[in-house]
Amino acid sequence: MKRVGCTVIAGGFWGDEGKGKIVSYLALRDKVDVCVRTGSVNAAHTVLFQGRTFKLHMIPAAFVHDNCRLLIGAGANIDVAQLESELHETGVRKRLGVDRNASIIELKHSSQDKKSEHLKSLGTTGRGVGPAIEERVKRSAKLAKDLPELKPFLADTVDEVNTAIDEGKTVILEGTQGLMLSLYHGTYPFVTSRDTSASAICSEAGVGPSRVDDVLLVLKAFITRVGAGDLPNEISRAEAIDRGWFEKAAGTGRERRSAPFNFELARRVARINGATELAVTKLDILYNECTHAKEFTKLPKEGQKFIAEIEKATGVPVTIIGTGPDALDIIDRRPTKLPTYLK
Ligand code: IMP
Ligand code: MG
Known about the structure:
globular, Adenylosuccinate Synthetase, Chain A, domain 1, 343 residues, alpha/beta, binds inosinic acid
């Protein structure tokens, strides 16, 4: 049993839903052939596999599957030093392709990000992504094809990914952040510098909407956000610690704010993304008895009820449930929830 076709992975809330873990699971389980990473270094995707933890800002999280071709899409913004350090850490040099048209984050962009009073007031990650995108929009940015150090990796990733889809291969378009951080659909001005929706992920990768088979929207069992801006039903830091929800950002180490799962918001973000499936991560944090569970029927009744409520609110099946930090701590309901999954 192996899934074929093209799946977009998008985040539903304010990022940090666990997209890295879901992508790494799918890569291993479905033997994904091609994974295109979009977005930039402001996002950190955490992958825990075989006892090692990776915090990926550039390399696609599907790298854990040895035969997966790893692409950085045309819409992405590249921090070359970060890329080099992750190549060293993951050892995937031979499998990486960087689109010629991806743009470059320079040192000046990160200092502009950190110095700007306006950007500071939004609580940006300070990685320079906003200023680099400004430069791209002004059409004065450097692109990947302009840098000798990227030469060994340059590729026409758009052609590669579309050919893989033509050939019926298994493809993932890996989105970053979440819909509520979208420049268009999020809590403006407390958002990131790009649209983070499934449509925008396709656009950054150069894949047309009719070529996508599934949109897998990742939602965490509770909500967190870093930086400034409204967070409906936010709980206090002390309450978050008490509930076991307190987190620190994988990228910047900043404390995350938290709030309970929001069913109304889930419905809205599922619609905007055109979600065909949902992944719900960290169910083990809400219900400790779920830890490492691999079967839905082994979950406590309240856990099962919570998942059913999400399905009712959104009208979308919850196919994947995260029950622990490891890539393989997953309940995979796709064989029963998606008739088309069985090949
Ligand atoms: P920027 O993307 O660094 O400009 O930051 C803008 C806002 O988006 C800030 O609130 C950041 O904390 C938030 N942000 C950007 N990327 C991520 C992410 O990957 N996860 C969570 N928040 C993010
Ligand atoms: Mg993250």
